[in-house]
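Bug #77: duplicate submission created two jobs. Keeping one. Sequence:
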Amino acid sequence: MTVRLSPDLHAVVTGGSSGIGLATVERLATRGVRVSVVALDDAYMAALAAEPPPSPHPVELVAADVGDRRQMEAALAACVSTHGPCDVLVTCAGVGRPARFEQEAVTEFERHMRVNYFGTLWAVRAVLPAMFERRRGSIVCISSAAALFGVFGYGAYAPSKYAVRGLCETLRTELRPHGISVGCVYPSDVDTPMLAAEEPLKPAELRALSGTVRPIPPGQVADAIVHGIETGRARIFTDSETRLLARVFAVAPGLASRLIDFRVARAHRVDA
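Kept job's structure:
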């Protein structure tokens, strides 16, 4: 199912005040889509309010904690009150903090699931009734390349993104008969404030795995998201390396795992 982005559509972007979300908001606004942003009330949101992207429609900004169901329901209601029912939902809000599993605080495991998974779930549940009623809609959720295979150092982050992947794959089959497309995005490292905050925290083994990966710009991910919306793609890859990696793990998971184990072991010896 395809969606033609046009001024009569309303797109809601969670986490749309920075990084991938902001780049997506800019792309959608350029296409004339009515855009709503749900994000934390922080410096990024203030900067977006001070300098919104050029658009024929005012960009609606609603502050909320995406991991709080009641806040999300109220935020989505506010967006709908301004721009009408949601036609496109893009869930970009997320957190990431690498650490060795045994050293990670319990609160971090809870935070990652609350923001990354439940922040996605509550947004989807809030927009679905109107999509069911009109028998159309597009939902795109940001997962991660870390949801394609287990990544050393992402014991809190990767499982939350695997959960997003599982949600998307389940919803795709369930919602397709209702005219609603569901896409899941698998970006690798992206040049965002979140990645910058992660860098000093990465264990040596994670550095060995990601050291050869050049971070891609948020705009490249946003372009893939827009293309995914318009083509109704279920799996949205943002770079050729991640697409190839996904195929290798699908076809030869044992070989791929051995290669990763080798790089981890070599980094572990050097760090010891």
